[in-house]
Specification:
The protein contains 15 helices and 13 strands. The protein folds into 2 domains: about 20-195 and about 380-405, 3-Layer(aba) Sandwich (Rossmann fold), CATH 3.40.50; about 215-375, Rossmann fold (3-Layer(aba) Sandwich). α1 crosses α15 (about 375-405). With about 400 residues, the protein is α/β, with parallel strands linked by helices. The strands form 2 sheets. The chain has a 7-stranded parallel sheet with strand order 3-2-1-4-5-6-7, sandwiched between helices. A 6-stranded parallel sheet has the order 10-9-8-11-12-13, sandwiched between helices.
Length: about 400
Protein backbone atom coordinates (compact mmCIF):
# COMPACT_ATOMS: atom_id res chain seq x y z
CA UNK A 1 0.00 0.00 0.00
CA UNK A 2 1.46 3.37 -1.00
CA UNK A 3 1.91 6.16 1.51
CA UNK A 4 -1.13 8.35 1.69
CA UNK A 5 -3.38 5.80 0.01
CA UNK A 6 -6.80 5.89 1.52
CA UNK A 7 -8.97 2.88 2.05
CA UNK A 8 -12.67 3.48 2.11
CA UNK A 9 -14.95 0.94 3.62
CA UNK A 10 -18.24 0.52 1.91
CA UNK A 11 -20.89 1.61 4.33
CA UNK A 12 -24.12 -0.26 3.88
CA UNK A 13 -27.24 1.71 4.64
CA UNK A 14 -29.43 0.07 7.27
CA UNK A 15 -32.55 -1.59 5.91
CA UNK A 16 -35.37 0.76 6.89
CA UNK A 17 -38.16 -1.60 5.90
CA UNK A 18 -40.31 -2.77 8.83
CA UNK A 19 -39.74 -6.32 9.98
CA UNK A 20 -42.77 -8.59 9.60
CA UNK A 21 -42.92 -11.95 11.35
CA UNK A 22 -45.52 -14.42 10.02
CA UNK A 23 -46.45 -17.11 12.54
CA UNK A 24 -48.30 -20.35 11.88
CA UNK A 25 -48.55 -23.88 13.16
CA UNK A 26 -47.34 -25.57 9.95
CA UNK A 27 -45.86 -23.80 6.95
CA UNK A 28 -45.73 -25.33 3.49
CA UNK A 29 -48.64 -27.75 3.95
CA UNK A 30 -49.91 -29.03 0.61
CA UNK A 31 -53.45 -27.94 1.44
CA UNK A 32 -52.46 -24.35 2.26
CA UNK A 33 -50.81 -22.87 -0.85
CA UNK A 34 -52.47 -19.52 -0.08
CA UNK A 35 -50.16 -19.02 2.91
CA UNK A 36 -47.03 -19.53 0.85
CA UNK A 37 -48.37 -17.13 -1.81
CA UNK A 38 -48.95 -14.47 0.83
CA UNK A 39 -45.54 -14.85 2.48
CA UNK A 40 -43.59 -14.62 -0.77
CA UNK A 41 -45.96 -11.97 -2.11
CA UNK A 42 -45.61 -9.43 0.70
CA UNK A 43 -43.70 -6.37 -0.49
CA UNK A 44 -41.93 -3.65 1.49
CA UNK A 45 -41.01 -5.78 4.51
CA UNK A 46 -38.09 -7.68 5.93
CA UNK A 47 -39.83 -11.01 6.37
CA UNK A 48 -39.39 -13.71 8.99
CA UNK A 49 -41.32 -16.94 9.43
CA UNK A 50 -42.12 -18.63 12.73
CA UNK A 51 -43.61 -22.13 12.75
CA UNK A 52 -43.55 -25.41 14.59
CA UNK A 53 -43.31 -27.58 11.47
CA UNK A 54 -41.92 -26.86 7.99
CA UNK A 55 -43.15 -28.89 5.03
CA UNK A 56 -42.56 -28.94 1.26
CA UNK A 57 -39.62 -26.54 1.31
CA UNK A 58 -38.70 -27.70 -2.19
CA UNK A 59 -42.02 -26.78 -3.80
CA UNK A 60 -42.79 -23.82 -1.52
CA UNK A 61 -39.43 -22.02 -1.10
CA UNK A 62 -39.03 -18.71 0.73
CA UNK A 63 -35.81 -17.28 -0.62
CA UNK A 64 -36.07 -13.84 1.00
CA UNK A 65 -37.54 -15.03 4.29
CA UNK A 66 -35.65 -15.96 7.42
CA UNK A 67 -37.23 -19.04 8.96
CA UNK A 68 -37.51 -20.06 12.62
CA UNK A 69 -38.82 -23.55 13.41
CA UNK A 70 -39.54 -24.03 17.09
CA UNK A 71 -38.67 -27.45 18.52
CA UNK A 72 -41.28 -29.72 19.98
CA UNK A 73 -44.97 -29.95 19.30
CA UNK A 74 -47.81 -27.57 19.97
CA UNK A 75 -49.75 -27.85 23.19
CA UNK A 76 -52.32 -30.63 23.45
CA UNK A 77 -55.73 -29.19 22.60
CA UNK A 78 -57.87 -32.31 22.53
CA UNK A 79 -56.25 -35.19 24.46
CA UNK A 80 -55.91 -35.78 28.21
CA UNK A 81 -52.89 -33.51 28.47
CA UNK A 82 -55.00 -30.46 27.66
CA UNK A 83 -56.21 -30.11 31.27
CA UNK A 84 -52.72 -29.69 32.70
CA UNK A 85 -51.81 -27.25 29.94
CA UNK A 86 -54.95 -25.20 30.50
CA UNK A 87 -54.37 -25.01 34.24
CA UNK A 88 -50.90 -23.58 33.63
CA UNK A 89 -51.78 -21.34 30.69
CA UNK A 90 -54.71 -19.60 32.39
CA UNK A 91 -52.33 -17.39 34.37
CA UNK A 92 -51.22 -15.86 31.05
CA UNK A 93 -54.70 -14.68 30.12
CA UNK A 94 -56.03 -17.56 28.02
CA UNK A 95 -56.05 -21.34 27.84
CA UNK A 96 -53.95 -21.21 24.67
CA UNK A 97 -51.05 -18.99 25.76
CA UNK A 98 -47.50 -20.27 25.39
CA UNK A 99 -46.00 -21.44 28.69
CA UNK A 100 -42.77 -22.81 30.11
CA UNK A 101 -39.79 -23.38 27.83
CA UNK A 102 -41.77 -22.44 24.73
CA UNK A 103 -42.62 -19.02 26.11
CA UNK A 104 -38.98 -18.52 27.08
CA UNK A 105 -37.90 -19.33 23.52
CA UNK A 106 -40.45 -16.91 22.10
CA UNK A 107 -39.33 -14.16 24.45
CA UNK A 108 -35.70 -14.69 23.48
CA UNK A 109 -36.61 -14.66 19.78
CA UNK A 110 -38.67 -11.48 20.07
CA UNK A 111 -35.97 -9.75 22.10
CA UNK A 112 -33.24 -10.75 19.64
CA UNK A 113 -35.00 -10.23 16.30
CA UNK A 114 -37.42 -7.55 17.43
CA UNK A 115 -40.13 -7.75 14.72
CA UNK A 116 -42.15 -4.58 14.18
CA UNK A 117 -45.37 -6.56 13.76
CA UNK A 118 -46.50 -10.19 13.97
CA UNK A 119 -49.13 -11.70 11.68
CA UNK A 120 -50.54 -14.88 13.22
CA UNK A 121 -52.38 -17.36 11.03
CA UNK A 122 -55.27 -19.02 12.92
CA UNK A 123 -56.79 -17.90 16.17
CA UNK A 124 -55.11 -20.44 18.44
CA UNK A 125 -51.65 -19.32 17.28
CA UNK A 126 -52.60 -15.67 17.78
CA UNK A 127 -53.68 -16.38 21.36
CA UNK A 128 -50.57 -18.48 21.87
CA UNK A 129 -48.20 -15.64 21.01
CA UNK A 130 -50.22 -12.67 22.28
CA UNK A 131 -49.02 -12.52 25.92
CA UNK A 132 -45.34 -12.70 24.92
CA UNK A 133 -45.80 -10.18 22.09
CA UNK A 134 -47.73 -7.84 24.37
CA UNK A 135 -44.97 -8.05 26.97
CA UNK A 136 -42.42 -7.15 24.29
CA UNK A 137 -44.55 -4.29 22.98
CA UNK A 138 -44.99 -5.86 19.54
CA UNK A 139 -48.39 -5.40 17.81
CA UNK A 140 -50.00 -8.68 16.82
CA UNK A 141 -52.56 -9.25 14.05
CA UNK A 142 -54.87 -12.26 14.39
CA UNK A 143 -55.78 -13.90 11.08
CA UNK A 144 -58.78 -16.23 11.36
CA UNK A 145 -59.40 -18.82 8.65
CA UNK A 146 -62.90 -20.10 9.23
CA UNK A 147 -62.30 -22.90 11.73
CA UNK A 148 -65.15 -21.56 13.92
CA UNK A 149 -63.65 -23.02 17.09
CA UNK A 150 -65.06 -19.97 18.85
CA UNK A 151 -68.56 -21.33 18.26
CA UNK A 152 -68.02 -24.98 19.26
CA UNK A 153 -65.36 -24.80 21.99
CA UNK A 154 -66.17 -22.93 25.21
CA UNK A 155 -62.48 -22.86 26.26
CA UNK A 156 -61.59 -21.21 22.99
CA UNK A 157 -64.46 -18.73 23.30
CA UNK A 158 -63.52 -17.73 26.83
CA UNK A 159 -59.89 -17.24 25.83
CA UNK A 160 -60.82 -15.28 22.72
CA UNK A 161 -63.08 -12.90 24.63
CA UNK A 162 -60.10 -11.93 26.78
CA UNK A 163 -57.85 -11.32 23.76
CA UNK A 164 -60.08 -9.45 21.31
CA UNK A 165 -59.23 -5.94 22.51
CA UNK A 166 -55.49 -6.68 22.62
CA UNK A 167 -55.14 -7.68 18.97
CA UNK A 168 -53.80 -4.80 16.89
CA UNK A 169 -56.10 -5.95 14.09
CA UNK A 170 -58.31 -8.93 13.26
CA UNK A 171 -58.51 -10.40 9.76
CA UNK A 172 -61.28 -12.81 8.73
CA UNK A 173 -61.94 -14.74 5.52
CA UNK A 174 -65.71 -15.17 5.89
CA UNK A 175 -68.56 -12.78 6.51
CA UNK A 176 -69.90 -15.18 9.16
CA UNK A 177 -66.71 -14.73 11.19
CA UNK A 178 -66.98 -10.97 10.86
CA UNK A 179 -70.57 -10.99 12.09
CA UNK A 180 -69.79 -13.26 15.05
CA UNK A 181 -66.86 -11.12 16.16
CA UNK A 182 -68.95 -7.94 15.92
CA UNK A 183 -71.69 -9.49 18.03
CA UNK A 184 -69.23 -10.64 20.68
CA UNK A 185 -67.36 -7.45 21.38
CA UNK A 186 -64.58 -7.14 18.83
CA UNK A 187 -63.98 -3.45 18.03
CA UNK A 188 -65.52 -2.70 14.64
CA UNK A 189 -62.53 -0.72 13.40
CA UNK A 190 -60.22 -3.67 14.05
CA UNK A 191 -62.08 -6.22 11.91
CA UNK A 192 -60.97 -6.58 8.29
CA UNK A 193 -62.51 -8.95 5.73
CA UNK A 194 -59.72 -10.23 3.44
CA UNK A 195 -60.46 -13.71 2.05
CA UNK A 196 -57.69 -15.82 0.59
CA UNK A 197 -57.46 -15.88 -3.18
CA UNK A 198 -55.92 -17.72 -6.11
CA UNK A 199 -53.53 -16.48 -8.80
CA UNK A 200 -55.99 -15.80 -11.59
CA UNK A 201 -53.16 -15.21 -14.04
CA UNK A 202 -51.99 -18.79 -13.45
CA UNK A 203 -55.37 -20.53 -13.23
CA UNK A 204 -56.98 -19.72 -16.57
CA UNK A 205 -59.60 -21.28 -18.86
CA UNK A 206 -58.57 -23.27 -21.92
CA UNK A 207 -60.33 -23.75 -25.25
CA UNK A 208 -63.08 -26.33 -25.29
CA UNK A 209 -62.02 -29.97 -25.64
CA UNK A 210 -62.96 -32.12 -28.59
CA UNK A 211 -64.18 -35.18 -26.67
CA UNK A 212 -67.75 -35.50 -25.40
CA UNK A 213 -66.98 -36.70 -21.86
CA UNK A 214 -68.20 -34.61 -18.90
CA UNK A 215 -65.42 -34.39 -16.37
CA UNK A 216 -66.10 -33.60 -12.71
CA UNK A 217 -63.20 -32.69 -10.45
CA UNK A 218 -62.50 -32.60 -6.71
CA UNK A 219 -59.44 -30.79 -5.34
CA UNK A 220 -59.01 -30.92 -1.57
CA UNK A 221 -57.45 -32.56 1.40
CA UNK A 222 -58.98 -36.05 1.60
CA UNK A 223 -60.42 -35.70 5.07
CA UNK A 224 -63.82 -36.09 6.68
CA UNK A 225 -64.66 -32.38 6.84
CA UNK A 226 -64.29 -32.06 3.04
CA UNK A 227 -67.17 -34.51 2.51
CA UNK A 228 -65.35 -36.43 -0.22
CA UNK A 229 -67.46 -39.54 0.39
CA UNK A 230 -70.68 -37.61 -0.21
CA UNK A 231 -69.30 -36.13 -3.42
CA UNK A 232 -68.34 -39.61 -4.65
CA UNK A 233 -71.76 -41.03 -3.75
CA UNK A 234 -73.46 -38.16 -5.58
CA UNK A 235 -71.25 -38.77 -8.62
CA UNK A 236 -72.21 -42.45 -8.52
CA UNK A 237 -75.88 -41.53 -8.95
CA UNK A 238 -75.09 -39.16 -11.82
CA UNK A 239 -73.05 -41.89 -13.52
CA UNK A 240 -76.06 -44.22 -13.46
CA UNK A 241 -77.99 -41.93 -15.82
CA UNK A 242 -75.07 -40.43 -17.75
CA UNK A 243 -72.42 -42.93 -18.86
CA UNK A 244 -70.17 -40.16 -20.22
CA UNK A 245 -69.27 -38.64 -16.84
CA UNK A 246 -65.88 -39.04 -15.18
CA UNK A 247 -64.43 -37.85 -11.86
CA UNK A 248 -60.87 -36.79 -11.15
CA UNK A 249 -59.78 -36.49 -7.50
CA UNK A 250 -56.71 -34.39 -6.71
CA UNK A 251 -55.25 -34.32 -3.21
CA UNK A 252 -54.28 -36.69 -0.45
CA UNK A 253 -55.13 -37.29 3.17
CA UNK A 254 -56.20 -39.69 5.87
CA UNK A 255 -59.35 -40.78 4.02
CA UNK A 256 -57.54 -41.85 0.85
CA UNK A 257 -57.78 -45.60 1.52
CA UNK A 258 -61.42 -45.45 2.63
CA UNK A 259 -62.38 -43.43 -0.43
CA UNK A 260 -60.63 -45.91 -2.68
CA UNK A 261 -62.65 -48.73 -1.13
CA UNK A 262 -65.84 -46.71 -1.59
CA UNK A 263 -65.09 -46.25 -5.28
CA UNK A 264 -64.64 -50.02 -5.62
CA UNK A 265 -67.88 -50.84 -3.79
CA UNK A 266 -69.82 -48.43 -6.01
CA UNK A 267 -68.34 -49.95 -9.16
CA UNK A 268 -66.69 -46.72 -10.26
CA UNK A 269 -63.11 -47.84 -10.78
CA UNK A 270 -63.32 -47.15 -14.52
CA UNK A 271 -64.87 -43.70 -13.98
CA UNK A 272 -62.97 -42.29 -10.98
CA UNK A 273 -59.24 -41.52 -10.95
CA UNK A 274 -57.17 -40.58 -7.88
CA UNK A 275 -54.31 -38.32 -8.94
CA UNK A 276 -52.85 -37.59 -5.50
CA UNK A 277 -51.25 -34.27 -4.61
CA UNK A 278 -49.69 -32.27 -7.44
CA UNK A 279 -47.97 -28.91 -7.35
CA UNK A 280 -49.68 -25.62 -8.21
CA UNK A 281 -48.45 -25.27 -11.78
CA UNK A 282 -49.41 -28.85 -12.61
CA UNK A 283 -52.85 -28.32 -11.11
CA UNK A 284 -53.27 -25.12 -13.12
CA UNK A 285 -52.80 -27.21 -16.28
CA UNK A 286 -55.11 -30.05 -15.19
CA UNK A 287 -57.99 -28.12 -13.61
CA UNK A 288 -59.29 -26.33 -16.73
CA UNK A 289 -59.42 -29.66 -18.60
CA UNK A 290 -62.45 -30.52 -16.45
CA UNK A 291 -66.02 -29.26 -16.66
CA UNK A 292 -67.54 -29.08 -13.15
CA UNK A 293 -65.98 -28.65 -9.71
CA UNK A 294 -67.63 -30.34 -6.71
CA UNK A 295 -66.98 -30.10 -2.96
CA UNK A 296 -69.35 -31.14 -0.17
CA UNK A 297 -67.70 -29.49 2.84
CA UNK A 298 -68.98 -30.48 6.27
CA UNK A 299 -69.07 -28.65 9.61
CA UNK A 300 -66.45 -26.00 8.95
CA UNK A 301 -64.81 -24.17 6.10
CA UNK A 302 -62.89 -20.97 5.59
CA UNK A 303 -62.53 -19.43 2.16
CA UNK A 304 -61.61 -22.48 0.03
CA UNK A 305 -58.83 -21.60 -2.37
CA UNK A 306 -59.58 -24.64 -4.52
CA UNK A 307 -63.01 -23.22 -5.29
CA UNK A 308 -61.48 -19.92 -6.38
CA UNK A 309 -59.00 -21.83 -8.54
CA UNK A 310 -61.92 -23.61 -10.21
CA UNK A 311 -63.80 -20.33 -10.69
CA UNK A 312 -60.68 -18.80 -12.19
CA UNK A 313 -60.60 -21.65 -14.73
CA UNK A 314 -64.26 -20.93 -15.61
CA UNK A 315 -65.64 -24.08 -14.02
CA UNK A 316 -69.11 -23.96 -12.45
CA UNK A 317 -69.09 -25.13 -8.84
CA UNK A 318 -71.40 -27.36 -6.80
CA UNK A 319 -70.71 -26.96 -3.08
CA UNK A 320 -72.30 -26.54 0.34
CA UNK A 321 -73.47 -23.51 2.29
CA UNK A 322 -70.59 -23.80 4.77
CA UNK A 323 -68.28 -20.99 5.89
CA UNK A 324 -66.95 -18.65 3.22
CA UNK A 325 -68.27 -20.72 0.32
CA UNK A 326 -71.43 -18.61 0.42
CA UNK A 327 -69.24 -15.56 -0.23
CA UNK A 328 -67.78 -17.24 -3.32
CA UNK A 329 -70.71 -19.01 -4.98
CA UNK A 330 -74.13 -17.58 -5.83
CA UNK A 331 -76.65 -20.23 -6.81
CA UNK A 332 -77.64 -19.93 -10.43
CA UNK A 333 -74.89 -17.39 -11.18
CA UNK A 334 -71.59 -19.26 -11.00
CA UNK A 335 -72.69 -22.59 -9.55
CA UNK A 336 -75.09 -24.20 -7.12
CA UNK A 337 -75.12 -24.42 -3.32
CA UNK A 338 -76.79 -27.16 -1.29
CA UNK A 339 -77.17 -27.69 2.43
CA UNK A 340 -74.68 -29.86 4.28
CA UNK A 341 -75.74 -33.49 3.89
CA UNK A 342 -78.19 -32.78 1.05
CA UNK A 343 -76.96 -35.44 -1.33
CA UNK A 344 -80.16 -35.34 -3.38
CA UNK A 345 -79.73 -31.63 -3.98
CA UNK A 346 -76.12 -32.20 -4.99
CA UNK A 347 -77.10 -34.96 -7.40
CA UNK A 348 -79.73 -32.73 -9.02
CA UNK A 349 -77.26 -29.86 -9.49
CA UNK A 350 -74.60 -32.16 -10.91
CA UNK A 351 -77.06 -33.78 -13.31
CA UNK A 352 -78.31 -30.43 -14.52
CA UNK A 353 -74.82 -29.17 -15.27
CA UNK A 354 -73.70 -32.45 -16.83
CA UNK A 355 -76.63 -32.32 -19.27
CA UNK A 356 -76.26 -28.68 -20.30
CA UNK A 357 -72.93 -27.48 -21.78
CA UNK A 358 -74.35 -24.03 -22.52
CA UNK A 359 -75.29 -23.58 -18.85
CA UNK A 360 -71.84 -24.74 -17.80
CA UNK A 361 -70.24 -22.16 -20.05
CA UNK A 362 -72.49 -19.35 -18.80
CA UNK A 363 -71.93 -20.09 -15.12
CA UNK A 364 -68.22 -20.65 -15.66
CA UNK A 365 -67.79 -17.27 -17.36
CA UNK A 366 -69.43 -15.50 -14.42
CA UNK A 367 -67.21 -17.43 -12.01
CA UNK A 368 -64.10 -16.36 -13.88
CA UNK A 369 -65.16 -12.71 -13.75
CA UNK A 370 -65.92 -12.98 -10.05
CA UNK A 371 -62.59 -14.65 -9.29
CA UNK A 372 -60.61 -11.94 -11.07
CA UNK A 373 -62.60 -9.10 -9.53
CA UNK A 374 -62.94 -10.33 -5.93
CA UNK A 375 -60.62 -13.25 -5.22
CA UNK A 376 -57.33 -12.65 -7.00
CA UNK A 377 -54.42 -13.69 -4.76
CA UNK A 378 -52.16 -10.77 -5.69
CA UNK A 379 -54.89 -8.22 -4.95
CA UNK A 380 -55.76 -9.84 -1.62
CA UNK A 381 -52.10 -10.05 -0.60
CA UNK A 382 -51.66 -6.36 -1.39
CA UNK A 383 -54.68 -5.52 0.77
CA UNK A 384 -53.29 -7.61 3.62
CA UNK A 385 -49.85 -6.06 3.22
CA UNK A 386 -51.35 -2.56 3.34
CA UNK A 387 -53.14 -3.43 6.59
CA UNK A 388 -49.93 -4.81 8.12
CA UNK A 389 -48.09 -1.66 7.09
CA UNK A 390 -50.82 0.53 8.62
CA UNK A 391 -50.56 -1.36 11.91
CA UNK A 392 -46.79 -0.92 11.86
CA UNK A 393 -47.10 2.83 11.30
CA UNK A 394 -49.69 3.23 14.06
CA UNK A 395 -47.48 1.33 16.49
CA UNK A 396 -44.49 3.47 15.57
CA UNK A 397 -46.50 6.68 16.05
CA UNK A 398 -47.69 5.52 19.47
CA UNK A 399 -44.14 4.69 20.49
CA UNK A 400 -42.86 8.09 19.33
CA UNK A 401 -45.69 9.83 21.17
CA UNK A 402 -44.89 7.94 24.36
CA UNK A 403 -41.19 8.83 24.10
CA UNK A 404 -42.00 12.49 23.43
CA UNK A 405 -44.17 12.71 26.51
Amino acid sequence: MQVGERIFEQIQEPDARPKLMIATRVFGASGQPWMWRQVVGFQGFRKELLCWERQNAGTQPTNDVREHVLPGKLAPYHNDGRWLYRSRAIFNGSFYAAIGEERTRLKELFDKDRPDVILCNFGDIAMRLLPTAREAGIPLIAYFHGDFSFIRNRWYRWSLYRCLHDFAAIVVVTDAERQWLREHGAPEDKIHYIPCGAPTDVFRPVPERSDDLVRFIMVSRLSEEKGCDISIRAFSEVAKVNPKVRLGIFGDGVERENLGELVKRLGLVDKVTFHGFIDELSLAKKLPLHDIFIQHSRIKEGSPVSIVEAMSCALPVVATTIGGITDQIATGQNGYLVSEGDIEGMIAAMQRLAADPVLRKQLGAVGRERAVACHDAAKQTRRLGELVMDVTRMSSMKLQGALAS
